[in-house]
């Protein structure tokens, strides 16, 4: 991980099970807010969580230009992680995120998570072609998005979705 | 706008690959979550399922804006749709269609109380943005669905009676649309229950099998008078399971005594049920299923809706045709030998042949009436008119589906008994053909006071 600067006082430490879920090869969705309050949305390729709790989301640059521009300009960020097999899900939010290039350390881990993600999609009924195509990305196009979670919400579908951890 | 039209994106709105929804609150804080349904609601609109009053819902009410990401399951192209909220439907065709889809899923998982649609949030699609990325080619040389639908409908036009119409339908679905498993169910007006009158592709015909209103995709389609389909049973199952770990996986259809087993696939991957309507009222259901994932999409739903509409019109036409058809040749039964005991239970109008269950309900009452007439007066020729006028049969006031009951009865007799048959004897007339001595018993009959 490139940066392990001190956590802000508002930060929330992710419990071990959520850290595991986020790095298990799950679906990663990233959102921010654009000009005029437009919701901006993109798909991540994977995630690494550092010892200090910093979350590093990898996502392709080309399909997410507007999202990355907003984040670069200091817009707030939300990231949801969803397990393929049982739809267990949680969301983290932060007032800002930092953009940086993907590094060589990222790639083996993202490859590992992508393989797990594809296996999970196949297990729940997708064809191998669908799973591979859904996860395809240009490695050279990956960017890293770093944030310290400030709020964490359970997101598993159902009436309990949206409950804030530690609230 | 990018020039893309929503009609061309319908495969991406099937829900095969989960959709993602982003909203922001009034202060600009984003929220991102999975969404159950992004429903095609016309060339310029989509509807999102509103199931819980959560953060997403609050944001939509605050800002009226949302962005949703959908994925085409064939080309794997991702699209971002910029949405502007217009209104929420809590009734009407759109709501019923989405509710029925959710209800079908819930019924399948036994989580009806959890999986409840509160509203269909309708959004105008302001922009469609294709996201870059690898895209696979769609399957080449795909057959024309419209041409196949036309051929199925043309096949229905040649049927001269209801029986032939159902056979032409299920046969045509197989031959022209590649649908191997299908069935037609007709509604009982008084109770709303549906009974199977024709099936195709199953090891046993299951004719006479019943479905209650609201039960499984068939019952929901009939109750809501809206097409419903589940295109990815595995995903839907797991989605339901995630909402209620304790949910039991209930069967699609109820299990009650004296029930003819439902002939459906043991492990379907896709199902679709379309109401057969007459004058806006569902009088039956056309059902098809498949062992393939996502076999029935928006296009197939449209095709089968056309077929079901055509079927309903042909059914009404056949019923209204008053001209007498020439008498068909009489079937030859083997010379009468042996005997069969026929028991009738008035409580549920069920009929047993030598202890084996045959049929119940109105069809059972009809058979019992015919047998008693035959026993008392030796009659073998009957008319549908006299059945309609017989108060003892407890036929509903509008017994439009009497012909369907007779088809059901005839098929059940053909399957279960070589010694008793019913055949058409011309339009509005039919013939009872006993092939052995029949002993009639009515164990729960109320004895006349001495």
Automatic annotation (TrEMBL), chain A:
It comes from Alloyangia mangrovi. It comes from the Bacteria. This is Pyridoxamine 5'-phosphate oxidase putative domain-containing protein.
TrEMBL record, chain B:
SMART domains: GAF. Gene3D superfamilies: 3.30.450.40, Electron Transport, Fmn-binding Protein, Chain A. Residues 161-325 form the GAF domain. InterPro entries: GAF, GAF-like_dom_sf, Split_barrel_FMN-bd. Coiled coil: none annotated. This is GAF domain-containing protein. It comes from Alloyangia mangrovi.
């Amino acid at each position: 991980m490139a940066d392990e600067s001190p956590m802000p006082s508002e930060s929330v430490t992710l419990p071990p099970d959520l850290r595991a879920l986020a790095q298990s090869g799950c679906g990663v969705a990233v959102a921010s807010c654009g000009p005029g309050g437009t919701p901006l949305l993109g798909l991540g390729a994977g995630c690494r969580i550092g010892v200090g709790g910093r979350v590093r989301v990898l996502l392709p640059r080309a399909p997410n230009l507007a999202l990355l521009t907003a984040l670069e300009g200091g817009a707030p960020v939300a990231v949801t992680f969803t397990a393929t097999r049982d739809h267990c899900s949680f969301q983290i939010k932060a007032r800002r995120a930092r953009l940086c290039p993907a590094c060589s350390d990222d790639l083996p881990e993202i490859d590992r998570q992508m393989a797990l993600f594809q296996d999970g999609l196949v297990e729940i009924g997708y064809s191998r072609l669908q799973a591979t195509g859904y996860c395809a990305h240009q490695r050279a196009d990956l960017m890293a998005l770093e944030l310290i979670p400030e709020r964490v919400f359970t997101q598993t579908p159902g009436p309990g979705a949206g409950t804030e951890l530690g609230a | 706008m990018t020039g893309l039209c929503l009609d061309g994106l319908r495969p991406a709105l099937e829900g095969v690959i989960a959709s993602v929804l982003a909203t922001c609150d009034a202060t600009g804080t984003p929220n991102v979550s999975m969404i159950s349904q992004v429903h095609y609601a016309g060339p310029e609109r989509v509807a999102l399922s509103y199931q819980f009053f959560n953060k997403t819902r609050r944001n939509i009410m605050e800002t009226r804006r949302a962005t949703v990401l959908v994925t085409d399951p064939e080309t794997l192209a991702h699209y971002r749709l910029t949405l502007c909220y217009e209104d929420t439907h809590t009734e009407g065709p759109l709501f019923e269609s989405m509710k029925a889809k959710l209800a079908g899923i819930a019924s399948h998982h036994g989580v009806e109380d959890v999986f409840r649609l509160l509203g269909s949030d309708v959004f105008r699609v302001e922009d469609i943005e294709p996201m870059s990325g690898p895209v696979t080619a769609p399957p080449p040389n795909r057959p024309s669905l419209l041409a196949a639908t036309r051929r199925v409908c043309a096949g229905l036009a040649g049927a001269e009676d209801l029986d032939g119409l159902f056979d032409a339908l299920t046969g045509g679905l197989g031959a022209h649309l590649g649908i191997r498993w299908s069935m037609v169910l007709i509604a009982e007006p008084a109770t709303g229950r549906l009974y199977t009158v024709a099936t195709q592709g199953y090891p046993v015909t299951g004719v006479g099998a019943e479905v209650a209103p609201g039960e499984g995709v068939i019952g929901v389609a009939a109750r809501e008078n809206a097409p419903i389909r589940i295109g990815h049973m595995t995903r839907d199952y797991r989605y339901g399971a995630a909402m209620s770990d304790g949910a039991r996986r209930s069967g699609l259809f109820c299990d009650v005594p004296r029930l003819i087993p439902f002939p459906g696939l043991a492990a379907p991957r896709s199902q679709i049920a379309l109401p057969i309507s007459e004058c806006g009222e569902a009088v039956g259901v056309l059902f098809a299923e498949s062992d393939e994932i996502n076999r029935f999409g928006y296009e197939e739903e449209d095709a089968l809706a056309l077929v079901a509409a055509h079927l309903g019109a042909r059914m009404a036409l056949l019923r209204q045709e008053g001209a007498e058809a020439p008498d068909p040749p009489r079937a030859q039964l083997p010379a009468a030998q042996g005997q069969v005991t026929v028991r009738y239970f008035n409580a549920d109008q069920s009929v047993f042949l030598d202890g084996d269950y045959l049929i119940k309900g109105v069809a059972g009452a009809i058979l019992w009436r015919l047998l008693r007439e035959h026993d008392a007066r030796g009659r073998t020729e009957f008319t549908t008119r006299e059945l309609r006028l017989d108060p003892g049969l407890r036929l509903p006031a509008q017994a439009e589906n009497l012909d369907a009951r007779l088809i059901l009865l005839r098929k059940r007799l053909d399957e279960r008994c070589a010694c008793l048959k019913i055949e058409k004897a011309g339009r509005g007339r039919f013939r009872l053909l006993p092939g052995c001595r029949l002993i009639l018993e009515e164990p729960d009959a109320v004895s006349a006071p001495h």
